[in-house]
Amino acid sequence: MALISVGEDTWAIEHEGCEKLYREIMEQFTLRSQELKTSVEYARISSSIRFRMKQFSSEVFQLKDKIMEASLSRSITQQEAERRSRLVEVLKSKERQLQELFNERKHSALVGGRAARPFADMGVSGWRDDEDEENAIGGSDLPSSEYSINEIRQQQQAVVRVQDEGLDVLSKVISRQKELAKVIGNEVDVQNDIIDDLTENMENTDSRIRRETKQIGTIVQKDKTWMYWMIIILLFITIVVVGVV
Description:
Helices cover 81% and strands 0% of the residues. By secondary structure, the chain is mainly alpha-helical. It has a domain of 149 residues. It starts with 10 loop residues before the first helix and ends with a helix.
C-alpha cells in the first residue's frame, strides 16, 4: 500500500490503511507462532513480517509528515491536527509493540542465556562456550549461537526461494508480453496491408471519378452544341417559309 496524494485530504483513508496493515502483521505473527522455529515456513513468515514492519514504519512517518504539512498550509484546524497527532502516537505505540513482539525470542534467549549466568561459571579460559551454557541451563541439543546461525541460513534460503519464485513469475510475464508483442506486431502488419489496399483503391476510385467527370463534361458540351444547331436549322426553315409566302 502506498501513501499517495491525489490533490485532496486523504489522511483518514491512509490512517485506516495503516490500521489494516497492523492487523495483517498481527495475523502473520499468529501464523508464525503455529510453526516450528526451525522450519522454512517460519523463516518465510518472519521475512514477510520484517518487510511489512518496515512498510508500516514508513507509512506512519508519512502520516506524521502530512500532519505538519497540513498545519503549515492551514488546510486543517489546530484541533484536527492535535487529534491526528494522537492517532499517530497510537500507531507509533503499535509499531513499538510489533518490534518487541518480533524480538521477543531474542530477548528470551538473552534472559535465559549468558545474561543469567553468574560470574562463577568462568573457567580457566574465561566464559564457557555456548554449548556448555545451554546444556547447563536446559539441556538443549543445539547451542544458541548455532541455532541463530541455522535460523539465519534458513531465512536466507527462504528469501532466495521467494526471489526465485518471483523471478519465475517475472519470466513468465515477460514471455507472455513477448508473445503479445508478436501478436500485436502481426496485427499491425495486417492493418498496414489493409491500409495500403484501401489507399490503392481510393487512388483508383479517384482516377475513375476524374475520368467520368471529364466524359460527362464532354457530353454536356456536345449536348449544348446540338441545341445550337437545332436553333439555327429552325431559324433557316422559318426564313425560307417567310420568303416563300
